[in-house]
Amino acid sequence: MKHLLTSTLCSLLLGAPAMAEFFWEDHYLIEDITLPADIDPQIGGLDMNEDGDIVACFHRGQVMTYDTSADKWSLFAEGLHEPLGIYAEKGGTVVVVQRPEITRLHDTDGDGKADFYETVCDDWGVSGNYHEFTFGLEKDSKGNFYIALGTASNGSGVRDEIRGEWNDAGGLTHDRFKYNNAIEEQSWASKKKGTARMYARVPYRGCVLKVSPGNRKAEVYATGVRTPNGLYVDEHDQLWVSDNQGDWVGASKVHRIVEGGFHGHAASLLWDPKNPVTDAVPASIPPAELNKRRTKAPFLLPQGDCGNSITQMTALQPEFSNGTAGNNLIVGEMNHSHLSACLPDTVKGEVQGAVYHHLKTSTIGAGNNRLLYSPDNKSLYIGKTHLSWPGREGIKKVTYKGKPFLVADRVQLTETGFDITFNAPITDIGAISDYLIESYVIAYYAGYGSPKNELRTDGITKVEAKGNVLSITLDKLEAGRVYDIRLPSSITSDLSDIAATRYWYTAHQILD
Amino acid sequence: MRHHLIITTIALACVSLLQAEPKATGRPITIKAVDGLQFDPPQARMKPGQTVLFRFLNRDSNDMPHNLVIIKEGALEEIQKASMQITPEAIARGYVPDHEAVIKGSKLIKADEGDEFYFTAPEEKGVYHYVCTYPGHSSIMYGALYVGKGAPKLHTDKNVPQVVRNQALELENAKKNVARPFMRRYFMTNAGPAAIGVALPGDQNYCWDAGNCRLRYAWTGDFINYGSTSRTNGSQQVSPSGKVYWTGGGDNLTYTISTGDDSLKPDFKGYQLINGTPKYTYHFGELVVTEFPQTQDKALVNTISVQNASAPIKVYAKGNVTSNVGTREGDYIVVNPADAQNIQLTFPAQ
Question: What is the ipTM of this complex?
Answer without folding.
Answer: 0.92
